[in-house]
Design brief:
The chain is α/β, with parallel strands linked by helices. Helices cover 45% and strands 12% of the residues. Keywords: DNA-binding, Transcription, Transcription regulation.
Amino acid sequence: MSVHRVAVLALDGVTPLDLAIPAQIFSARAETPYEMTLCGPDPMVATTAGFRLAVSGGLEQVRAADTVIVPGFEPLQRPAEAVLDVLAEARDRGRRVVSICTGAFALAAAGVLDGLHATTHWKHIEELERDFPAVAVERDVLYVDEGDVLTSAGVCCGIDLCLHIVRRDLGAGPANEVARGLVAAPHRDGGQAQYVPAPVAVAGQASLSGTRGWALSRLDEPLTLRVLARHAGVSQRTFLRRFTEETGTTPLQWLLNARLARARELLETTTYPVDRVARECGLGTAANLRLHFRRALGTTPTAYRRAFTR
C-alpha cells in the first residue's frame, strides 16, 4: 500500500477523545503507510473540554485526503456549508469517509449517509433517526462498514472502527500490532452491542477478564460454556449473564470472533496449510474454517492469505 493520506477533520466543539483515537492510530509509523493531518475549517478549534486546539491543515488538505475522519462534536449544530461541501465532494470522488460518535451528524447533514446504514452514540440514536430519515440507523452495533462510508458508535467504539480500518487495509497482523501498542482490548466485531449495561464489575464481583485472557491463550482447545464457567468459579448461568454484561456479546460469539482473528493472523504470518490453521485457532477442520471465513469476511482463507501475505 502506497502512502495513504488521512485527514482528521475537527469541527467546533470537537470531543478530545474522539479526535485522539484516529490521530493516534493513523499517526506515521514505519509499519503502516498512513500520513495523518489534523484539519479544521479554522486554524483554532474549540473542544468540549474547554481548551482550544490548533490544527495544521484546512479544508484543502481534506480535499486531498484518501480518508476523511470526522470525530464527534457538541452541540449538534449543522456545520458550515463549506464543511458539508467538502464532505459531499469526498464521497462523490470515491474517497473513504468516516465518522466517530456524533461525527455521523456531519456526514448525515452532508448527505453522505443517505440510503446507507449508520450508527452513532446510543444517546443520540433517536435524534439521528428523527433528523435524517434517509439514513438507516443501527442501534446495537459498535460500528457500521458500508464500504467507503463507515460510522462508529460512542467514543471508545472509535478504537474498534479505526482498528477495523487498519485490519481491512493491511490485514490482521499490522492491526494487532497497533492494538498492542494501544493496550487495546482484543478485536471486537462491529455487530456487538454498543451499550454494555455493566461495563465495570459491581462491588463484590470480580471481572471475567482473567478468564477471557486464559481463553485467548487456549483457542486451540475445546472451550465450552461449562469449561469457561468452571475457570471463573461461577455457575454457567451466572457466567453467561456477567459475560454478556461485560462484553456486550455471548461467550460463544466472542470465542468465534477471537478464533477468526487468530486464523487471520496465522494466514498472514505463517505458511501453515489451511487445515493446520483451523486446528491452531480452534475451528477444527478446514471446511469449518472456510465456512466461518466466508460468513464473516466474504472470502476464503486462501484468498485472504494471497491478499495479505507479506
